[in-house]
Structures are given as C-alpha cells and as structure tokens.
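Here is the promised in-class demo. Please do not try to memorize the tokens; focus on the logic of going from shape to residues.
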C-alpha cells in the first residue's frame, strides 16, 4: 500500500479533529434556543448597541400579509411555546464564546457581549389567545421590549407560530368537514419537517380538534394516550411465518385485544369476510378496521356490508378536500388518519415587523409589502355568535360594541397565563362556529370584511409623509 505524503496525512488528521468537534446529532434543547436564530438578528442587535439604540423601546407585530391559497381564515397557535421560549431566553458563556470564535463579531462593542451575558427578556407580549380565528394583516402577537431584545426573538417566534398555526388551521378545517362524530387521528410524524416539528404538529392538531396522535413522545408530553393500529409489514411478516393473514390478526389481538386491524394488505374484502365470521362466532372482538389504499368509497361500502357494527377508519394522503369528496360519494367511513397533507402544505408566511420605536410610528413601504404603522388592536364585531367584521385599529381606540382580541400574555418579562390543551381546543371549536358559512367553505372561501379604522388610516398617511 502506498503511504500518502505527510501533508495529506496532516490534512486528514485535521479534518478528523474538525469532524469530532462537530455535533453530528444536531438535536435541539431549550438551552440552545438563544442561538436558534438567523445571523442577522445578532448582527443587527450588535449594530443597535454600537449606535446607542439598543435600549430604545420598540414594538414589533407578527402577522400574515395574505392567507394561504384556499384558506378563508387561520387558527392562531404556538403561543405556549413562544412564551416558554421568552421565559428561558439566555446566552450561556459557551454560546458567547462560540459566537466570538466565528470572527464575525470582532469589531462590535464590548458592551454587546456584556448584554448577551446578562440577557433576560424584560418586555411585554400581547397576543390573540391560541385557538382564535384571525385573518390577513391582523397581528397574532406584538412584542414590546428594548429594541435589541425584540429583534433577537424574531426568528424563533416566527418558527413556532407559523408552523403551529398552519397545522391548527388544517386540523380545524378537517374537523369542520368530517363533522363532530368522526374520529380523527394525527399520523404525521414520519412526514413532518423535523422531529421537533412532529411534536409541535401533534400538539397543534390536538388543540384544533383532532382526537389523538400516533406520536408517542407528543402524547406522553401532552398527557394523552397515543393511538394507532399496525403497518402492512406486521401482517406480511406474521402471515409469511405463521401461514395466513388470519393468524397475523389473531397474533396481534393476543397482545392487544380488540385493537383496530389494517385489512388491505392483500384483499380487504376477503379479510372483512373472514373477520365477520370470527366476530359473529364470538372468536374475536373488534374495535375497528383500517383501509389505507384503493377505492375507499367502494371498499368501505363493501366492508360495511360485512362488518355493519365495526367502525371503519381510512388513511392515505387524506385532507379536507378528499374527506369531503369521500363523504359526498357515500363512503362508509367513521374516522380518518391524517398524515402528510396535515403536517406539510402551503406555508403560513407570517412576518415580524417594527411598527413603533420610542413612540415614533414606523412602516414598510416596499411594493406589495406595505405595513400599517403603530401598535394595533383587533376589534371584532359579532351578531348572534357570528363574526360580522373585524376592525384593525390603534391600541388607543376602544369600542363598546366590539371585542378586542389581543390580550396581555407577558408583562415585564413575566408570563401572565398558561392554558390547558382543553381550553384551547374549546376556543378553537367556538372560533370555527363563529365564522360565516362562506368563510368556512373549503372551496373559494371568503373572509369576513376587515375594516381599517379612521385613526389608523390617518396615522398611515402621516407616517408616509
């Protein structure tokens, strides 16, 4: 074997040391959250320090400019994780050393490092409660804090609120289409964008109306019982070694009596006929069967004819439109497993914009990205429990006939509320029931009118000038 030159050997040794120093696992814990940000948040904060602006009181609002295509509303979600993050916001000595080692910050003032070392979030947060229906240009959240703090928290807040709001909205739409009696299960862990995202997706789905999740970690953390059936591989493995699909079902029920069975590994109708005989003879109790492929309308109707009293579950790239199609076509389905199309899809493009600094209103005037200046409140008008309109106004305004939506969630660095999943779930149901029919429809939905108050219009014109 030819021996490589010394310089190559040295290069390999250095490469090995570099790789050893890397965190190849790349898992994230709460202690990492301060660095879970975009670089420009830190460089801007350093610039604020250098220019003497860091302690100026600033207000940023998080909102969406437009709803995702095909959506008539959004269900706000993710506030719980946002306030948890703000409570724990710290920079450890090792994190500060890591930033210094990059060389990027060599010219920043020393006071920037002392600020990071003493970091605590000391501001206020106003937010719409989780489970509330909101629309375009309405702030889901407002941060009022020293400029450098309000800037640094942008990335994480957008991450948790954008993603959980997307999942909650899709889950609420699925529940609305499927109806209150349908069993809805979250099956999206393997398709979620990351392990962390899978836990957040499960939480948002449950908070917005789904009944259970297959994600064991999420269920345990949320004090819920996980739910699921089986995969085709179990049926194939046991059938191949034990001799038949029937033996596979029997073996599974030996350890998990009565559990739902996946019956379309080979021939769903033949499996249903076999199970019907066992149920009729008393050999087997069955809490449900699942269909994961094929013509779900025809298959479910035939399975129902053989198992009239057994719930039928369906899965396989389902969403609100497909569930509506199945129902309209007369499918005999009692519950649905939601995976890929629940935890992925059109993003919620929430943005986080400066609206005021030291009492001075600010606004962005870029083409198609104009923002409204000043600290704002959403005033909602309801009649007979239905939303008639929303009015976007300034926090200094008030109304006896309208309901203000943004509430104080965090004051002087201390959280003010901590809701249960049941409370959020109930609010989501009330929010959906309050939407006009044309807003709830899944095809070409129409949001209710959003009015801009005279005071906000006047401030916008003044700020432009």
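The designed amino acids, position by position:
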């Amino acid at each position: 074997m030819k021996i490589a030159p010394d310089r190559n050997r040295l290069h390999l040794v250095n490469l090995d040391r570099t790789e050893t120093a890397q965190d190849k696992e790349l898992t994230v814990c709460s202690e990492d959250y301060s660095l879970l940000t975009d670089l420009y948040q830190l460089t801007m904060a350093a610039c604020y320090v250098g220019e003497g602006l860091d302690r100026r009181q600033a207000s940023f609002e998080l909102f969406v400019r437009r709803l995702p295509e095909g959506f008539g509303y959004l269900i706000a979600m993710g506030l719980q994780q946002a306030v948890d993050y703000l409570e724990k916001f710290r920079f450890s000595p090792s994190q500060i050393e890591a930033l210094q080692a990059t060389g990027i910050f060599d010219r920043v003032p020393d006071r920037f490092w002392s600020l990071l070392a003493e970091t605590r979030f000391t501001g206020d947060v106003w937010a719409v409660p989780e489970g509330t229906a909101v629309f375009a240009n309405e702030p889901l959240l407002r941060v009022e804090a020293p400029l450098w703090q309000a800037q640094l928290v942008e990335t994480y807040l957008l991450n948790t609120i954008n993603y959980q709001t997307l999942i909650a909205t899709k889950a609420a739409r699925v529940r609305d289409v499927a109806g209150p009696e349908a069993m809805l299960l979250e099956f999206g862990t393997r398709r979620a964008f990351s392990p962390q995202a899978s836990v957040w997706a499960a939480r948002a789905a449950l908070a917005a109306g789904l009944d259970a999740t297959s994600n064991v970690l999420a269920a345990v953390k949320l004090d819920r019982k996980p739910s699921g059936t089986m995969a085709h591989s179990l049926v194939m493995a046991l059938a191949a070694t034990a001799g038949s699909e029937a033996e596979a079902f029997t073996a599974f029920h030996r350890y998990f009596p009565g559990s739902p069975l996946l019956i379309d590994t080979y021939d769903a109708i033949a499996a249903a006929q076999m199970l019907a005989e066992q149920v009729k003879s008393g050999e087997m109790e069955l809490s449900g069967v699942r269909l994961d492929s094929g013509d779900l309308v025809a298959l479910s109707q035939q399975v129902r004819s053989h198992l009239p009293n057994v719930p039928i579950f369906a899965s396989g790239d389902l969403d609100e439109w497909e569930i509506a199609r199945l129902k309209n076509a007369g499918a005999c389905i009692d519950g649905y497993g939601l995976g890929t199309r629940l935890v992925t899809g059109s993003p919620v493009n929430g943005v986080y914009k400066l609206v005021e600094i030291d009492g001075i209103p600010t606004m962005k005037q870029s083409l198609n990205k104009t923002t409204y200046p000043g600290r704002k409140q959403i005033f909602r008008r309801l009649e007979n429990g239905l939303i008639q309109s929303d009015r976007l106004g300034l926090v200094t305004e008030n109304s006896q006939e309208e309901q203000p939506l943004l509430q104080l969630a965090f004051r002087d660095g201390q959280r003010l509320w901590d809701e249960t999943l049941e409370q959020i779930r109930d609010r989501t149901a009330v929010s959906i029931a309050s939407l006009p029919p044309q807003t709830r429809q899944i095809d070409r939905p129409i949001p209710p009118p959003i009015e801009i108050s005279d005071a906000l219009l006047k401030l916008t014109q003044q700020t432009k000038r």
